[in-house]
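Structure (tokenized):
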């Protein structure tokens, strides 16, 4: 059985190494957490998947702030 504990405003789920191994997760791995219909899915990300997700996030952020970046690129007037 796993346990959820709180540390300040954060909550952590304590798992045994055996539970992590069953999911293909090792200590210090980067993981993806998804929640749907009150079900939490945790999976390890390989380097390519992690790079893809970071690239997509960066593109989204740059697009959202495109106008501000264009103004900054003009420099002082």
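Design, position by position:
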């Amino acid at each position: 059985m796993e346990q959820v504990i709180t540390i300040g405003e954060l909550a952590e789920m304590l798992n045994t190494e055996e539970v992590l191994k069953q999911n293909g997760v090792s200590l210090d791995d980067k993981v993806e957490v998804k929640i749907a219909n009150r079900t939490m899915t945790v999976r390890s990300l390989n380097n390519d998947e992690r790079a893809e997700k970071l690239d997509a996030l960066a593109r989204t952020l740059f697009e959202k702030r495109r106008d501000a970046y264009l103004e900054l690129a003009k420099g002082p007037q």
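Reviewer-requested clarification: The chain has three helices and four strands. Residues 1-45 form a domain with the Pemi-like Protein 1; Chain: D fold (CATH 2.10.260).
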